[in-house]
Design brief:
Helix content is 49%, strand content 0%. The chain has 67 residues and is mainly alpha-helical. The longest helix has 26 residues.
Length: 67
């Protein structure tokens, strides 16, 4: 006797349940980084059109493109 197969089998085991959690964490990290750099920009007097990577390098952060 063969087991009957469903026409539309359940796909719950294939769903990535951690996907939305990871995107929320990335968004939170981006928001925190932008807020921190924004406050540093205001304190140091960096203008809005200047790049923040310059500000990051001044504070000791390494940029992989310029190493």
């Amino acid at each position: 006797m063969q087991v009957e197969k469903y026409k539309y089998p359940l796909q719950g085991y294939r769903q990535n349940l951690l996907g939305p959690l990871k995107t929320r964490l990335k968004r939170a990290k981006w928001w925190l980084k932008s807020e921190i750099l924004g406050s540093k920009r205001v304190k140091l007097g960096v203008k809005n059109y200047e790049s923040t990577t310059k500000l990051e390098r001044q504070n000791g952060a390494k940029c992989r493109f310029y190493s």
